[in-house]
C-alpha cells in the first residue's frame, strides 16, 4: 500500500506553466487536425492521449497519469450513450421509426421546408425535457430516412436538428448536463430555469428556423413529394413496441426525477436498456423455438451493430485529454483569468454596479461559449462554479444573472464546432453509420454563425435582466414570442 501511495504521489500532475502550455498546445493541435480532416477523429484524439502519456512518463512534466485518466472518464455520459443507443436499436426492430417518418412526411405534405422546421422544433422541445444527447439518438435515424425519401441533402435536416438539441437543452435544469451542475451549485430550481431561460430559448429557436430555411434554400427548393413518393409503413412488432414505450417512459421519468432519487442519468438509462433487451428476448422465446445462436442474435445485433463504438471511444479519449487540462490546472488558470479581467474592467473603466454586473455576465457568457466550442463544457463548468460564486459575492445587484450567463455560454457555445457538444459528436457518428458524412468544416460553417446569433440573443436578455429585472424581461419576451407566432398564423391564412 505504501508503494502504491508513493507512486500516486510521484505521478501527480504538475501544475507549472510549462505543463499547462504543453496540454494547451496538444488540445489546439487536436482541433486543427480535426478541422483539416487528415485522419479519422478517433485516431486523432487517441494519438493525442498517447502523446500525453508519453510526456507524462518519460519527462519531468506529469500531464495525466493512467490513474488520472481513469478518473477523468465520465462514465455517466458513456453509459448513458451506450444504453440509449441500445434502447433505440431495439425500437428500430419494431418499425416505429419508419412509421413515424411516414406520418411526419404526411403531416408536412412532403414539403422539405416544413419537414426541416418540424424536425428542429420536435428536437428542441424534446431536448428541454430529456437529455439532448438522448434526443439526437432518437431523432437522427428519422432525419436521415426523411432526407433519403425526399431527396434532400441530409445535412439540411441534421445540422438544424443538432443545433435545436443544444438550444432546447438550454431551457431547463435537466436539458443539458452543465445546467444540472449549475442548478446544484447555485441552488437554482427547475422552475427558475423555466422562468429565466425558456423565453430566450424560444426566440433562439425561431431565429434558427429563419436562418436554416435560408441557409439551405437550394436544398429545400426541391418539389414536395407526393403521397406516392413515400411509403406508409406499419408497426411490425406492436407488442414489443408497447413494452418498449413503457420502458422508455420509465427511463425519462428517471431523468426528470434524478435530483430526488440521487441516481445519475446513466442509471435509469442502463436499467431501461437491460429491461428492453430482456423483454425482446422473452418475446422472441414465446414466438419461436430457437437454437442458441438464434436466441442470442437479437442481443448481439444490438451490441455490435447499434451501439456506436467509435463515438464512445472518441468521447473516452476526449475526456482524458480534457482531464489533463483539469489536472495540470489549465482550466483553473483560464477561469481565474476571467475573474481577473472582470476586476480589471471594473477598475479601469470605472463601471457602476449595474455596469460591472453586466460586464461580468457578458464576459462569463462569451468566454464560456468560446471554451465550450473547443473543449467539453462539463469540466469547465465544474471549475467555473466556485469562481463565479466568489465573483457573485463581490458584486452588487441581482447576481443570479451570472449563473444564467454561464448556462447560456456553456450550452450554446457547443454549437460552434463539431466536437463542442456531446450531441454533435453523437449525431455525426450516427449519421456516418447511415452512410451520411458531415465534415468538421461543414459543421463549423453553419454552427459558428448559429452559436454567435444565439449568444447575441442571450446577451440581450442578460442586459435586460440587469437593467430591467427578470420579471419585466420575462413579460416582454413572452409578448414578443407570442406576437411572432400570432403574426405567422395570420400570414399563413
Which features characterize this protein?
493 residues, mainly alpha, 24 helices, 79% helix, disordered N terminus
**Rg from alpha-carbon coordinates:** 24 Å
Report the structural category: mainly alpha
* N- to C-terminal distance: 77 Å
Shape: globular
Provide the β-strand percentage band: under 5%
Percentage of residues assigned to helices: over 70%
- In total, the number of strands is 0
3D architecture notes:
The protein is mainly alpha-helical and 493 residues long. The chain has helices spanning 2-10, 17-36, 41-58, 66-72, 75-92, 96-107, 112-129, 132-150, 155-169, 177-186, 190-215, 217-220, 238-256, 258-261, 266-287, 292-306, 309-327, 330-349, 353-372, 377-394, 400-412, 422-433, 440-467, 470-492. Helix 11 runs parallel beside helix 24 and helix 19 (353-372) packs antiparallel against helix 23.
